[in-house]
From TrEMBL, chain A:
<dbReference type="InterPro" id="IPR043429">
    <property type="entry name" value="ArtM/GltK/GlnP/TcyL/YhdX-like"/>
</dbReference>
<keyword id="KW-1003">Cell membrane</keyword>
<comment type="similarity">
    <text>Belongs to the binding-protein-dependent transport system permease family. HisMQ subfamily.</text>
</comment>
<dbReference type="Pfam" id="PF00528">
    <property type="entry name" value="BPD_transp_1"/>
</dbReference>
<keyword id="KW-0029">Amino-acid transport</keyword>
<keyword id="KW-0812">Transmembrane</keyword>
<feature type="transmembrane region" description="Helical">
    <location>
        <begin position="20"/>
        <end position="43"/>
    </location>
</feature>
UniProtKB/TrEMBL annotation, chain B:
<dbReference type="InterPro" id="IPR003593">
    <property type="entry name" value="AAA+_ATPase"/>
</dbReference>
<dbReference type="InterPro" id="IPR014343">
    <property type="entry name" value="Ectoine_EhuA"/>
</dbReference>
<comment type="similarity">
    <text>Belongs to the ABC transporter superfamily.</text>
</comment>
<dbReference type="InterPro" id="IPR017871">
    <property type="entry name" value="ABC_transporter-like_CS"/>
</dbReference>
<dbReference type="InterPro" id="IPR027417">
    <property type="entry name" value="P-loop_NTPase"/>
</dbReference>
<protein>
    <submittedName>
        <fullName>Amino-acid ABC transporter ATP-binding protein y4tH</fullName>
    </submittedName>
</protein>
<keyword id="KW-0547">Nucleotide-binding</keyword>
TrEMBL record, chain C:
<keyword id="KW-0029">Amino-acid transport</keyword>
<dbReference type="Pfam" id="PF00528">
    <property type="entry name" value="BPD_transp_1"/>
</dbReference>
<comment type="similarity">
    <text>Belongs to the binding-protein-dependent transport system permease family. HisMQ subfamily.</text>
</comment>
<dbReference type="InterPro" id="IPR010065">
    <property type="entry name" value="AA_ABC_transptr_permease_3TM"/>
</dbReference>
<feature type="transmembrane region" description="Helical">
    <location>
        <begin position="37"/>
        <end position="61"/>
    </location>
</feature>
<feature type="transmembrane region" description="Helical">
    <location>
        <begin position="106"/>
        <end position="129"/>
    </location>
</feature>
<feature type="transmembrane region" description="Helical">
    <location>
        <begin position="73"/>
        <end position="94"/>
    </location>
</feature>
Length: 221, 264, 242
């Protein structure tokens, strides 16, 4: 059994449609990961142990357990509390929360990279903690970590096939269904794999480009 | 202006050697000879190519043009069908055995103690039995005054002690030529003396050709048979230390020496 | 200090979770889940061995191999890092049989996950080798050591220490990715949980126990790797020049 071009071409539109779901899940998931991640990082760097320690605990717990289990958990557990989540929504939340813990470590490195003198100068100028964060610390902490965030964006994208486990009609689920209908798995699964490979290689090249630009410009935007 | 002759062929001969990084020429058509048993100090401002001379001789860097001869045989090249072609790895390994080098930053192996550092190459390269290698290592460590530090790791030794281990490690391979590349530059001032004393001892007790790049003008004056002053990839002036330090002829040599002496 | 605090509190949280879970269906579900956990551990260990072998070979090939070998290594690394473990797992499970290669699901699982983590590991190994100071290489040349001897005796022992923390992270990624094998019919911990969930519908209890079991295994990995690091760092730090 070898590669059948006419079959491959015939399933291409169906897979293209499914890839839109993959891209939607990636973008929504990453928006959640990037914002929640920043929040977790700020909480975790808090000087109060009562805030920092439990946050660290939650982050370590989520990072140490499989995303697939977390997806199942959200999808099956919420209905028990009367909240029925659409599979897509549950999947995106799980992806976002899981990668938020990774992003929080990246932000943390960025926050800790801002020299202490910046905090001291802000205190000397009598800026509130909120304004110090918003106007002084975060603008310096984020640009250096953009490439690292980009890597997690790609990682999240590559993990979206996990949503197939709760029957979200993304690219991999669609490819599997096509395979089981026609008993030809070679073309759909290889096309899906090639899609992920090409997209992440392009994204990796883009990240390297951004990394060089940031390195050239220095830390300040 | 020639090397003091010791029966015919020089130990090391640079023949029209050129080295450049991209468009930046480090050494420009260098011709230079070192006789067997000769002790030569190489001085000059930074960027003058003096360290490059040692690094090329150790084959840490390839030359772009010319030939380096070692003990009457080509080092950077080898003979094939009566012609000299660039040396392959096997030829380099055969020839390198005659040279030892001591580095500015010691480059000791941090996961091995002093004796292990000195045994490593004799055992893996020369296939020497371990007991014999250990005996030689201990003997050399005694010679550099570290008889009580056999089992110390580099991190447990001072800079001066580390550099003395590095000298013993190089000697363990029984080289004919020893290269010293600014071996006291990374040391605290009070530790320089102990390393220079060891080098003095080698000079008087062993029959070695010793080439040293150094900023220690006093030591160069007292120790060397000949001093070479490098500037912009060329030898500006060379001769016995009394002449170079006492009555330099070249304007650049004068400028450099007065600047260095002013600083000390 | 903060890390130790974190570790202690993680252990406390684990014990608290254990207490809660033991009230709720702990006795009922644990034996079945532990059987699954055994499969999970088996795949993790076998995958880790394969990953380590692939990583070292690919890293050395990419650094020192002749051009064709180097390109092969780069292709392997980019191919397996460019797609996710699940895609690789599905491809080997569904597509390989069409080429006449029929493998046991367990073998597919170990191969796919080991090769996947090995590709990331190759970059870890390569990075650690590159990070060994240049002077160490120069010293081996000055001592006339062959490149093989230099790597084996001088460079790799020093690179090894730098590799341990990133390998700890990779092993935890490997453990997490073993949950994917449940999707190709292997009865691992995740598979058992799904199965029990479908028959009993006691989702919260089952999944809390499962999460705690995964946490326990990953804590064992973390603690083990820290001990290894402390031991290895002790051997080299003694020697690191000031």
């Amino acid at each position: 059994m070898v590669w059948d071009w006419s079959y491959a071409l015939s399933i291409l539109p169906i897979l293209a449609q499914a890839s839109i779901v993959t891209i939607q899940a990636t973008l929504l998931g990453f928006v959640l990961a990037a914002t929640l991640g920043l929040l977790l990082a700020i909480l975790r760097t808090s000087p109060l142990p009562i805030i920092a320690v439990p946050t660290g605990l939650v982050v370590e717990f989520i990072r140490s357990t499989p995303l697939l289990i977390q997806i199942f958990f959200l999808y099956f557990v919420f209905p028990e509390f009367g909240v029925t989540l659409d599979a897509f929504v549950a999947g995106v939340i799980a992806l976002g929360v899981h990668y938020a813990t990774y992003c929080s470590e990246v932000y943390r490195a960025g926050l800790e990279g801002v020299p202490r003198g910046q905090w001291e100068a802000s205190t000397a100028l009598n800026l509130s903690p909120f304004h110090t964060f918003r106007d002084v610390i975060i603008p310096q902490a984020i640009p250096p970590v953009i490439p690292a965030l980009g890597n997690y964006f790609v990682a999240l994208f590559k993990e979206t096939p996990l949503l197939s486990a709760i029957a979200v009609m993304e690219l991999m689920q669609r490819a599997k269904i096509l395979g089981s209908q026609t008993f030809r798995y070679i073309e759909p699964i290889t096309i899906a794999g090639a899609f992920f490979l090409v997209m992440s290689l392009i994204a990796a090249a883009l990240i390297r480009y951004v990394e060089r630009r940031i390195a050239l410009r220095g830390i300040r935007p | 202006m020639t090397a003091p002759d010791s029966n015919g062929t020089p130990m090391v001969r640079f023949e029209n050697v050129t080295k450049s990084y991209g468009s930046f020429v480090v050494l420009d058509g260098l011709d230079l000879e070192f006789g067997a048993g000769e002790k030569v100090a190489i001085i000059g401002p930074s960027g003058s190519g003096k360290t490059t001379v040692l690094r090329m001789l150790m084959t840490l860097e390839r030359i772009n043009d010319g030939i380096i001869w070692l003990d009457g045989e080509p080092l950077t090249h080898m003979e094939r069908d009566g012609q000299l072609v660039p040396a392959n790895a096997a030829h380099l390994r055969r020839q390198r055995g005659k040279i030892g080098m001591v580095f500015q930053h010691f480059n000791l192996f941090p996961h091995m103690n002093a004796v292990q550092n000195c045994m490593e190459a004799p055992v893996t390269v020369l296939r020497m039995p371990k007991a014999e290698a250990r005996a030689r290592a201990c003997e050399l460590l005694e010679m550099v005054g570290l008889g009580d530090k056999f089992n110390h790791y580099p991190g447990q030794l001072s800079g001066g002690q580390q550099q003395r281990v590095a000298i013993a490690r190089a000697l363990a391979m029984r080289p004919k030529v020893m290269l010293f590349d600014e071996v006291t530059s990374a040391l605290d001032p009070e530790l320089i003396g102990e390393v220079l004393n060891v080098i003095r001892k080698l000079g008087s007790e062993l029959d070695l050709t010793m080439l040293m790049v150094t900023h220690q003008m006093g030591f160069a004056k007292e120790f060397a048979d000949r001093v070479c002053f490098f500037h912009s990839g060329k030898i500006c002036e060379q001769g016995p230390p009394e002449q170079i330090f006492g009555a330099p002829e070249n304007e650049r040599t004068k400028q450099f020496l007065s600047a260095v002496l002013e600083a000390t | 200090m903060a890390q130790r605090l974190l570790l202690v509190s993680t252990i406390m949280a684990f014990l608290a979770g254990l207490a809660i879970a033991s009230f709720a269906g702990f006795r009922e579900f644990l034996p079945g889940l532990l059987q699954g956990a055994l499969i999970t551990v088996e795949i993790t260990v076998a995958g880790a061995v394969l990953a380590l072998v692939c990583a070292v070979i690919a890293a050395l090939a990419k650094l020192y191999g002749p051009a064709p070998v180097r390109w092969l290594a780069i292709t392997y690394i980019e191919l397996f890092r460019g797609t996710s473990a699940l895609v690789q797992l599905f491809w080997m499970f569904f597509v390989l049989p069409h080429f006449g290669v029929r493998l046991e699901p367990l073998l597919v699982a170990i191969l796919a996950l080991g090769l996947n983590i090995g590709a990331y590991g190759a970059e870890v190994v390569r990075g650690a080798i590159i990070a060994v100071p240049r002077g160490q290489w120069e010293a081996t040349i000055a001592l006339n050591m062959s490149r093989a001897a230099a790597l084996r005796r001088v460079i790799l022992p020093q690179a090894f220490v730098a590799m341990i923390p990133p390998w700890g992270n990779l092993l935890i990624e490997l453990l997490k990715s073993t949950s994917l094998v449940s999707l190709i019919t292997i009865a691992d911990l995740t598979f058992r949980a799904q199965q029990m969930n479908q028959t009993t519908f006691r989702t919260v209890e089952i999944f809390i126990i499962v999460l705690l079991l995964y946490l326990a295994i990953s804590m064992i990995i973390t603690v083990g790797m820290r001990a290894l690091e402390a031991k290895a760092a002790g051997a080299v730090a003694r020697g690191r020049a000031h």
